[in-house]
Structure formats: C-alpha cells, structure tokens
Amino acid sequence: MVKKKWVALLISALGIALVLGALERASANRLVTGTSFVMDTVVQYSFYGKHAQEARDMVAQELSSIESRMSMHLEDSEISELNRNAGKNAVQLSEDTYELLSRSVAYAEQTSGIFDVTIAPLASAWGITSDHPQVPEQSRIDALLALVGYQDVQLDPDSASARLAREGQAVDVGGIAKGYACDVARRIAQECGVKSGYLSIGGNIMVIGEKPDKTPFKFGIRDPRGTPNQYFGVVTIPDLTIATSGDYERFFEQGGVRYHHILDPRTGYPAQEGLMSVSVISPDGAYADFMSTWLFIMGREFVVENLNNFDCGLVAVDLENRVYVSENLKDRFFPADQTGVYQFEGTP
Description:
Helices cover 35% and strands 24% of the residues. It has nine helices and 17 strands.
C-alpha cells in the first residue's frame, strides 16, 4: 500500500514537472510584436522570450528618447540646439549624442567628406522629406555648399560638448542614427533576456539569434522599383543588422527626373552614380547605416570594384537591374525576383 502511494506521488511529481517544464518553454518562446512611429518612420518589433514585453516597451521608450535628443527636426533636441548656436557657443551634449556625432565626424574624415553630417542646410533647402520638396536655384545650392565641411565640427571630449564654427552651418545625424538605434535596441533586448527576435526601423533590420525552432529569420531586400511588399532577394542575417540606402524611399519627380534624399556633398544634388540601392550587413548597425549611405553616393563603379574589400556584406542594385552580391553573403543571399528583370551577377 505504501509502495503504491509512493508510486502515485512520484507520477504526480513527474506530471507537475512536465507541466512546469512545458510552461517554462512556452514562456521562453512567447512572442511579443508591435509597431510604433518614431524617428520619422514605422518601427516593427518581434521579440521572443519570457521578458519580451518588457524588452519591447524599453526599446520603444529608448528609441523615442534617441529621437528627442538627436533629431534636427525637433526644436528641443540637442542637435537643434547645436545648430542654433552655429558660429556662437559650444553646446553640452549627452553621452550618446556626443558619441554618435563624434563617430559621424570620424566617418566623414575616413571618406574625405563624402559622408558628411554638415550636409543639413542643403537637405533643408531641398526639403525632400518634407511636404514641399523643391529643386533649389543653383545660386542657393552653391551658397549652401560653402557651409558643408565636417572639419568645422569642433568636438571637446573632456566636456562632451560640440560647436559649429560658422553661422548657418547645421548637422544632421539621420544618416547613421537608425543604425545606431538598432545597436541600442539589440543591447536592451538582450539585457532583458531576449535570445530571438528582430526589429525593423525604416530601411534597417536588426536580428537577434534564430527563431525558437532553430530556423533562421529570413528577410526580403526590397525591389527598388516595386511596391513595398516586393523583393528581389532574401537574406538570413542571424545576430546581424542590415541597412539599405536607395533612391526609392523618399523622392519626388520633376521634369521627368527623380530627386531622392541622399545628397552628394560634391555637387549639392541627389547622388546620381548608377545605383538604385545598396544594402550593407554587419554586426554593427551604425557602421552598416553609414556604409550604405557612403557607398550609394560613391556609386556603381566604386562598389563593383570594391565589392569584396570591406568587412561587411554587400548587395547592390544598379540602374540596369544588375544585382551584385559580395562573396561573404553567397551562403546567406537567395535570389527571389518574381519580375524577371534582375540579373544576379555577384563579382563581375
């Protein structure tokens, strides 16, 4: 009788353990999704884990905080204060704003000013991301080009302050901020215990691990001449970030000419160097964001010539519908063109 009792208790305990184990696994695989609008774009969240909701809420809060400090379009932001004080006073910056601005200036120096955050006055004159875009007069472009120069961003690491040397100058860290936001989101989510998920912010996607079933997340690279839901290729990017720059997200047409938002500091006009889009894949989101912008401005010839020379993955599409894929992505990139217009050439 006693033996039967112990057997019953053992079976009961095993049953409870199995139920608790199943509940724990279910909790670990809990999916939390959501969307928000921040940094002038739609953000999509998809996190798995016991604390996925906490991670989603904390990430959303931090993205809003980043925008409030770093957007040149918000009057109370640190960047706006820096721009208002151009030619006058140095402005104290928060640690992350100073870090991002400093990094942007370093990238400008590395690229001899092709990537230059002081392009902001020209971007404002074009107004391509506004409700009233326009082609400025050439005299206006020439005058504003004279204000472009990363060398005029004076940084003081001891006080974490910055100053613009000349009145009328302005900076815009938008060419790197979304990639930086991906890095911040990854850190916060992982600190909350998230081991699987992704975040999409504009043209950037940050991925953590794989799906709970151990299969990779797959993402389409948008067809630059298709609808938002059309794509020409699919990539798997575990624990990486992909950033894409192209002529199709924000643009207007006038006189049969497409004017997009990525300006070339050498001309003052939207970059016209033979590319429709450039996607960069890296564990460093800010670097991927910077690289996609810089390479898009540099253009097709430079990208094709250096396709395998960078510490990142590259997918570039030129104006003749040729797709170039770096060697280090050959096992992660899969053609998925349903239109039949793209030619996948890899290294020519």
